[in-house]
Amino acid sequence: MSRFLVLLAVVCCPVFAAPADDPVPIEQEPRHMLKFANRHVRFFDVQLPPGYVSIVHIHHHDGVFVNIGPSETTAEDWGKAPVARGPRAPGETYFIGYATQPKAHRISNVGQQVYHVTDTEILHGCGNGPLPADAMAGPLITENDRVRGTRVELQPGASAALHGPCGLLVSVTGGAVRLDLPGGAARIDLQPAGFHWRDSATPVTLTNVGATPLHAVDILVK
Hints:
Layout: H1 3-12, E1 24-25, E2 32-37, E3 41-48, E4 57-59, E5 63-69, E6 73-77, E7 83-85, E8 93-96, E9 103-109, E10 115-122, E11 140-143, E12 147-154, E13 159-162, E14 166-171, E15 175-181, E16 184-190, E17 195-199, E18 204-208, E19 214-221
Parallel strand pairs: 1-4
Antiparallel strand pairs: 2-3, 3-10, 4-9, 5-8, 5-10, 6-7, 6-9, 11-12, 12-19, 13-18, 14-17, 14-19, 15-16, 15-18
């Protein structure tokens, strides 16, 4: 082929770079599994196996994240370089205010274990006033105008009060519990990342009826 024909082919058929991935809603990322939703919260169970690279997804709602299984990861905000993150301890809990500052990113599991975390999105509040200072199931983890997060650590046979007006209990270790509700008692076997939603102004008594210590996080929605 002559040099003229080669030049003509390049001019007529230019090569375009592939566009970057457009962010998808969080529920369209295959490993962000929506397990529960109502008008107040959406609960996602996120499990990334070793080597998994997530689709770029966007967070629009404030979220409370509870770490269940640790692994090294990288976080890549859309259009930015990846940032390495060390493994987070099981039970480590934090709030991110995505409602005022949405973020699109991808997460890659570069470690040897499954990266396991839950995301409780806060959609609408439950109450009309401030919470009592003593409305806590255990030591305070995080608090702002949307949620109060407390740590629940119960030895076998021990109990704690889960306050209202509504909230979500997220199990870190798993275990057997009894909930004494206004309408009666219920026994629940929780797996790691298991959860229970309550919608009651009356405090609910949580009792560890299993044979091992229970570690959980209580997310009280304001």
